[in-house]
Amino acid sequence: MRWSQAFIPTLREDPAEAEAPSHRLLLRAGFIRQLMAGHYSLLLPAVRVRAKVIAVIREEMDAIGGQEFLLPTLHPADLWQRTGRWDLIGDEMFRLTDRRGTDLALGMTHEEVFTHLASELASYRQLPQVWYQFQTKFRDEPRPKAGLLRVREFTMKDSYSFDLDDAGLDAAFEAHRAAYRRIFHRLGFDIVEVDASAGMMGGKGSVEFMVRSGAGEDLVAVCRSCDYAANLETATSSIEPVADPGDGAAVEEFPTPGVRTIADLVAFPGGAQGEHQVKTLVYLADGQPILVLLRGDHDLQEQKLADGLGVADLRPATTDEVFEVLGAHPGSLGAVGVDTVRVVADPALSGRTGMTTGANRDGHHLRHVDVARDIAVERWLDVRQVKAGEACPTCGAPLAVERTIEIGHIFKLGRRYTEALGVSVLGPDGGAITPTMGSYGIGVERNLAAVVEVHHDERGIVWPMALAPWEVVVTLVRPDDDAVRAAGDAVTASLQSAGVEVILDDRNERPGVKFADAELVGIPIRVTIGPRGVSAGLAEVVRRDDGTSEEHPLEVVADLVAAAVADRRR
Fold this sequence. Notes:
Helix content is 28%, strand content 28%. It is an alpha+beta fold. It has 3 domains: 19-206 and 405-453, BirA Bifunctional Protein, domain 2; 252-380, YbaK/aminoacyl-tRNA synthetase-associated domain (YbaK protein), CATH 3.90.960.10; 463-569, Anticodon-binding domain (Rossmann fold, 3-Layer(aba) Sandwich).
C-alpha cells in the first residue's frame, strides 16, 4: 500500500464539533467522516482496524462453540408485537411501512428474530446452542454524540444461547463472560465488570463490561477494597442513620413564600435540612400517576424506579399534570393525606419522624411529619442514586463513582422470548420444554473508539500492534531520490514477505508532515529512509508508543522490524 494512492484525509486542526478524544482523533486522522448526526462513513484505516476487532471477537466466540449466522436487518412488526417490545421501546426504534402497508422495523437488536429461528429446534438433544452474528443495528438516539461512542447506526456482535434449564443458561453466561474477558484483554482494555439493569431486554440479571474514560456516559460505583462494582442504575450503598426528634407532635402547616427547592427550604427561617425533608416527585408509570418519595438530600435513579415497578414507560409529569394530580406546583408537593395516587417511597424514609414536606398548597409546607403515621406508602423501593463516599454494601469501605464507557453487555433473558414466540422442544420424557435464553452484545465501532480513548497522546492515536491499521510505515524523506526510493521499495517488499502490514509513505510532502501524520494515525513503528541514511547504509526505526529511535543497517532493518512486530502482536 502506497500512501500517495490511499485516501487518508488527515486534518491539521481539531474539528470544532468533536469533544471526546476518540471523536477528535478519528476525524483528524482520516478514519471517519460524518454523513449526518449519528451516522459515520468508515474510511480505509477504520475499515482495517474494524476488521481486526471483528477477527478477535470471532475467534473467541468460535472458541466457546458459537456458530456464526447473518440475519436480516429489516424485521416484521409482528415478532416485536408478540414479545411486547413494539410498544415498549418507543421512539428509539426506526419504523417504516412497505408498499403493501406492512409495518416493519430496522433491527436495533435481534432477540425476536433469533428466537423465531429457534422455533425449528425440535429436541432436547439439539441443545445447547450458541448463535452469533455481526450485523448493523439502528437506534434512533435522541442525542447522538462523541463520534462512534453514541450513534444511530453501528455494527454489533450479538450472540444468543439456548439451553434446557437455568443451569445451562448459567454455564452459557459464564462462558460468554470468560470470552468477553479474553476479547477485551486482547483489545488492550483494563475492564470493570459491573452489575447492571436489564432495561428493555428483560430477564433476571446482566453484567456490563466497562472501561474507565472521561468521555464515558455511564457512571459506576466501585469499591476499591472488595470486588463490588455496579452501574448507578442498580448500585446500592449503606448510609448513616439520621437522628429524628420523634416528639410525636401533630402535623403543622406553615407558609413558605418563595420556596421552590430543597435548598430554598434549607435556607428558609424555620425550614429544615435536606436529610429532614421528604422530596415528592410525580411520575407517570405506563400512563398512571405515582408519587415517588425520597429523602430531601437524595436523588432519584429513574432506571431503578422503572425496573422496580416493572413498567414499560416512565417519565416525569409535566407541571400541568402535577397540578392536576396534587393541586399544587413543584416546590410545594407532598404525600401527607394522599390516598388517590400510588405512593412509592425509598427505604431511607422508613420510620422517619419530625420531617418536613410540601403541603400541596403553593407556598406552604408541613412540619412534624411522621412517615408511618401520616403517609400511606404503598410500596418501599430502593430508588436512591448512590453517591461517592457512601459505604460499600459488601464491605463498608467508601465507594468511588467513576465515568466509564460500556463496551459489552451480557444478559440472562430466561424464557421471556421463547414463551412469547411459542418455542419449545421435546424433553427426554416426551414432554414439551421451553428453552431458556441468554443474549450477549459487543458494539464493534464503539470498541474501536474506546481503544482510541484509552490509547492516545497529544500527538495522536497509539494503536496496540494487534489493532493498528498498518503495523509499519516506511517513510521516504526524499521520494524523488532514486536511491531512497529503491531502498524504500526493498525494505517494504521484505516486510511484506515477512507478513508485516506495511504502508509506504511516498508522498511529496515535507518530512515533518509525514512524521506528524504517522503519529496521528497511530502506526506502531516508523522506518525512515532518507538520502543521508542511504549513503551511510542506515535506516531509522522509531516506536510510536515510547518514541525511542534507533538506527539499523538497511540490509537487516526489515528482519529486525518484522521480529519486533511479531513479538508485539502477542
